[in-house]
Amino acid sequence: MRGRRLGPAGWDVVAGLGLLVLAAVVWWQAELLPPPIFDPIGSALLPQAVALVIAGLSLVMIAGALGTARAELSRQVPSDEATSGWSAAGRALAVVAMLLVYGALLATEGVGFTVATVLFVAPTGILLSCGNRRVMVASVISAFLLAAACSYIFTQIFYIDLP
Amino acid sequence: MISELASALFYVVHPTPFFWVLLGVVSGIVVGSIPGLSGGMLIVLVMPLTFYMDSTLALILMIGIYVGSVSGGLISATLLRMPGTPSSVVTTFDGYPLARRGEAGKALALGISSSLFGGLLAGVFLVTLSPPLSRWATSFGPWEYFGLVLMALVLIAAISQGSMVKGLVSGALGLLVAMPGFSATDGQLRLTFGFHVLDAGFTLLPVLLGVFVVSQIIRDAMELHLSAEPVRFTQRFVSIGLASWRRHFANMLRSSVIGTWIGILPGVGASISAMIAYGVARSVAREPETFGQGNESGIVASEAANNANVGGALIPLVTLGIPGSPIDAFLLGALLLHNIQPGPLLFQTNGSFVWALIAAYLVANVLMFVIMSVTVRQVAGLANVNRAILLPAIFVFCVIGAFALSNRLFDVWVMIGFGVFGFVLEKRGFPLGAFVIGFVLSQTFEEELRSAFMSSGGSLDELFSRPVALAFIAVAVFALAWPFRGRLLPLRRFAAAAPASPEEGPSKGAPR
To answer: Of B357, B280, B312, B314, which is closest to residue B59 (Cα–Cα)?
Structure first.
C-alpha cells in the first residue's frame, strides 16, 4: 500500500500559512487599540511591527519551500516509510494526552494533587516502559512515592501550595 | 577589583553559600550527564523553589547548576555517544571513538581538565572585563539598549544552526508572546482577545517550563528507542598528567578564548563555540583526518570552549542585563523573579551581589573538576536511569513550579500549551533559544524603544547622534545581510532548513 505525506518543505508551507494568519490576527487586534496619548508610538506599533516581520518572513519561507513541497508531494512514499515515524509520533501524542488528562484531573474538584499525580505518573511510566515489566512495576511504585513525597515536602517544608 | 573579588570568594567559601554552590554543581553534573535533560531545564525547575531563598544564594545555586551541567554532558557524550547537553554534541565526535578504543578514562580526563581550564580562563575575562564594561554601559541610553537587544535577537537567529529565516521568526514569536496583557509603558491592555486571564499576560516561568522542559519531555518520549552501544567504565578516578597539560595547552588556550568571546556575543550558546573551536583545532592540526576518530585535540577543543562559553556569557548578563546564551536568559528570568533589576546599574548598586556570582562561578569550576574526577563512574551509572520513570516525575515538578507562582491552574495549562508549541516549533526547525531570548527581552525591547522615541520627541534624529547605538544596529544589519554577500542567493537556499536543536546544537539521532 502506498501513501503520501507532507515532507519538511510541505510543513514549512503549512507553518508559513499559519504564521500569516497569526500575523493578520495580531495586526487586526493592534488596530483596535486607541491612539497613543503620552508617547509618540503607542502600544500598537510594536505588535504591528512584529506582525509585519513575521508576515514577511513567512512569505519568504513559503516561497522558498513551495517548489520543494510540490516535488515532495508528487513523490510516492512506500507504506513502511510513511508509517515508520508513527510509533514515535503516537508515543508523543499519548504523552501529550496524558499531560492534558493530568491538568484536567488537577482541575477536578475532589481529586487532589496526590491522587491526580498517581493517576498520571503510573500510566505514563507504563506507556513509556515499552513493555519492560520491571520498569512498569518501578513506575507504579515511583508514582505513589513521588505523589506522597511531593505532597509532604512542598506543603510542609517549602510551604508551597499544590494544585 | 581584587579586594572585591577576594571578599566575594571569602563569602562563597562560607558553609551556607558553599553548600548551595556544591549542590548546584552536583545536581548540574548529574542532570547534564543524563541524555534528555539539561542544565537549562533544571534551572527553570528550581526557580520556583528559590522563591523564599535569599536571592544571592538562589543565583549561586543556579550558576552551580549551569557550570555542572555543561561539564556533565561530557560523560554521556563520551560513554554513550549521546550528548547530555547540546554543548557536548561536538565531544561525541572524538570522545566516543576514543572510549570505544578502550581509552574512556583518558577521554573523560581530557574533557574534565579542559572544562576546568576553559571555565577558569573565562573567569579571568569575567573578572577583568565586567567592571569596566559595566561602567561603560552606564552611559547607555534607550537607543543603545534598543540597538543592543535588536543585535542580540538578530545574532541568535543568524549564528544559530538551521535556517536564519526560522531563527528570526522564532525570535519574533518570542517578542510577540510577551506582549499580551497590560503594556508596561502605558498600562494599555492589548492582545488579550477579551480573555481576562490574559490581563497579566503569559508569565515567565510557565512559558519557560513549557517551551524548554515540557517540549523536551515530549521529544524524549519520541526518542526513547534511540541509543548507542554504551561503553563500560569502571575507573574510580580520572586525571591527566603534566605532559598532557603541556601537549594540549595551546589548544586549551585557543579554544577557551574562542568560547569566551563567542559567549560574550548576546544570545549565542555553548554548542556554537564548541563547534567553532573544534573546527579551528582541526584546521591547524597536523593530521586533520584523524578528527572524528578519537583525536584527543577534538575533545579538548570542544570542552574547553563550551565551558569558557559559560563564563563569557555571564559577562553581558551581569554588565548589560543581556543574556549571553539561552540559559543566561533563564538566569535573567531568575533575577527578575527575585526583584533584582538586571542592567549596567546592577554592578553599581548591587556590586557585592555581582561579585558573589562571579566568585561562585570560579568556585563552581573548581568543584566541578574535583567532583567529576572522583565520581565520574557513579555519574556514568546515573546516565542510564530509565526515562520512563524520570520523565513523568519531571513533569510533576513542572506542574508544581508553574502553579506555585500565582496559585493558578491557568499557568499549568499555559505551560502544557507552550510545551506542545515548543515541541512543534523545534520539530519544524525553529530554534527555541531565539524564542526564549525574544520572550525574555521583549519588555526591555519595547520599553527602550518607546523611551527613546519619547526622549527624542518622536524623531529618529537622535539615533544618528548615538554612534554606539548605530554600531549595534549596524552589526544586526550586517548579520542579516551576511548570507547575501557577493551575490543574490535564491530564496530557496536562504530559507532552506537544516534541523535546529533546542540550545543551538544539532540533535539528529541524539536526545538533548
So the answer is: B357
Q: How far apart are CA B451 and CA B460, in angstroms?
A: 12
CA gap B388, B103 in Å, rounded = 31
Residue matched to cell numbers 570552549: B305
pLDDT at A95 > cutoff 60: yes
Q: Is A17 on the interface with B (CB under 8 A)?
A: no
By three-state DSSP, how is residue A150 classified? helix
pLDDT exceeds cutoff 90 at B119: yes
pLDDT tier, B29 (very low <50, low <70, confident <90, very high otherwise): very high
3-class DSSP assignment, residue A3 = strand
ipTM of the complex: 0.88
Short-list B268, B275, B237, B306, CA closest to B69: B306
Q: Rounded to whole angstroms, what are the CA distances from B17 to A150, B333, B359?
A: 25, 21, 11
A 97-126 residues with CB below 8 A of B? 99-100, 102-103, 106-107, 117, 120-121, 124-126
Contact B102/A at CB under 8 A: no
Which of A47, A60, A120 is closest, CB to CB, to B495? A60
**CB contact (8 A) between residue B428 and residue A102:** no
CB contact (8 A) between residue B399 and residue A102 = yes
By CB neighbour count within 10 A (0-12 exposed, 13-18 middle, 19+ buried), where does B372 fall?
buried
Contacts of B190 in chain A (CB under 8 A): 29-30, 33, 43-44, 47
Question: Scanning every residue of chain A, which has its alpha carbon at the shortest distance from the alpha carbon of B496?
Answer: A64
Q: How many CB atoms lie within 10 A of CB B195?
A: 9
For a pLDDT cut of 90, what percent of chain A falls above it? 41
H-state helical runs in B99-163: 104-137, 142-159
- Measured CA to CA in angstroms, residue B418 lies from B234, B265, B386, B439 at distances of 41, 27, 25, 12
Q: Quote the pTM value.
A: 0.80
Cα–Cα dist B142/B450, whole Å:
8
pLDDT, tens digit, for every residue of B438-448? Answer: 888 888 889 88
B225 touching chain A per CB within 8 A: yes
Residue A154 and residue B400 in contact, taking contact as beta carbons nearer than 8 Å: yes
Q: Which residues are paired to B156 by β-bridges?
A: none
Q: What pLDDT score does B83 carry?
A: 73
Query: DSSP secondary structure string, B220-288?
Result: HHHTTT---PPPP---S-----HHHHHHHHHHHHHHHHHHHHHHHSTT--HHHHHHHHHHHHHHH-S-G
Q: Is B165 on the interface with A (CB under 8 A)?
A: yes
What average pLDDT does this structure show over B342-355? 86
Tens of pLDDT along B187-234? 888 988 888 888 888 988 888 888 888 888 898 888 776 655 566 666
CB of B386 within 8 Å of any CB in chain A? yes
Q: Quick one: pLDDT at residue A5?
A: 66
Q: Give B462→chain A minimum CA distance, Å.
A: 14
Amino acid B509: pLDDT: 33
Cell numbers for B210, please give them: 513549557
- Compare all CA atoms of chain B with the CA of A41 and give the residue at the minimum distance: B450
